[in-house]
């Protein structure tokens, strides 16, 4: 049996059979001021919930915020016609379109930063695409901006993706 306490700046996530006992000790013995204790349901932009007894992680709310940023930046909703983060066979490193102006570079950098965070909270499916596009942060081109817009469109279209964690003991009775 293991207990885990994961920290991120001033956020704690406790995995234990008796997380309340740990919270009480932190409050009483160490004088921590804890708020929002209870079953994990939202942390660092990601929703957590149980479905059919399986722990689920879904960054849907964060992706919805990314969509609002997209609309603020471009005055329109992203395309719903995408079915992948980038087009098959795309090579962003070969892009020779015009360089973005200073304001567009700031938008590009902001979009890359948000996309990097969405990877951290569970959307691993776009990691290679975002890391590739992030290498152009210093001097992105028009084509790179169009690509990150496509990645956003893909994430928003597929915002209901969920990672499921089985938390029960696995059945290993078939193994010697």
Topology:
Blueprint: E1 4-8, E2 11-15, H1 19-28, E3 42-43, E4 46-51, E5 54-58, H2 60-74, H3 102-120, H4 127-134, H5 142-157, E6 163-165
Antiparallel strand pairs: 1-2, 3-4, 4-5, 5-6
Notable characteristics:
176 residues; alpha+beta; 4-stranded antiparallel beta sheet; 15% strand
Structure notes:
This protein is of the alpha+beta class and 176 residues long. Helices cover 39% and strands 15% of the residues. It has five helices and six strands; from the N terminus they run E-E-H-E-E-E-H-H-H-H-E. It has a four-stranded antiparallel sheet with strand order 3-4-5-6, with helices on one face. It has a two-stranded antiparallel ribbon with strand order 1-2. Strand 3 and strand 4 form a beta hairpin. Helix 2 packs antiparallel against helix 3, helix 2 crosses helix 5 and helix 3 packs parallel to helix 5. The chain starts with a strand and ends in an 11-residue tail after the last strand.
How does the helix and strand content classify structurally? Answer: alpha+beta
Biggest β-sheet description: 4 strands, antiparallel
Please estimate the helix content: 25-40%
SSE string, helices as H and strands as E: EEHEEEHHHHE
Q: Hey, roughly how much beta strand do the residues contain?
A: 5-15%
Distance between the termini: 22 Å
- pLDDT < 50 runs, ≥5 residues: none
Overall pLDDT, averaged?
94
Mass-distribution shape: elongated
Radius of gyration of CA atoms, rounded to a whole number = 20 Å
Across the major sheet, the strand order is: 3-4-5-6
Q: Would you report the number of β strands?
A: 6
């Amino acid at each position: 049996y293991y207990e885990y306490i994961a920290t991120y700046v001033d956020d704690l996530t406790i995995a234990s059979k008796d997380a309340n006992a740990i919270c009480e000790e932190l409050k009483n013995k160490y004088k921590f001021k804890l708020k929002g204790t209870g079953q994990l349901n939202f942390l660092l932009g990601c929703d957590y919930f149980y479905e059919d007894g399986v722990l689920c992680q879904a960054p849907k709310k964060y992706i919805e915020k990314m969509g609002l940023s997209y609309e603020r930046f471009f005055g329109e909703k992203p395309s719903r016609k995408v079915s992948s983060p980038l087009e098959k066979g795309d090579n962003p490193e070969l892009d020779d379109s015009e360089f973005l102006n200073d304001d567009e570079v700031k938008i590009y950098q902001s979009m890359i930063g948000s996309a990097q965070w969405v990877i951290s909270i569970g959307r691993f499916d776009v990691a290679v695409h975002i890391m590739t596009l992030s290498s152009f942060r210093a001097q992105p081109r028009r084509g790179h901006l169009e690509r990150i817009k496509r990645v956003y469109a893909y994430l928003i279209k597929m915002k209901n993706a969920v990672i499921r964690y089985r938390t029960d003991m696995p059945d290993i009775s078939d193994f010697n």
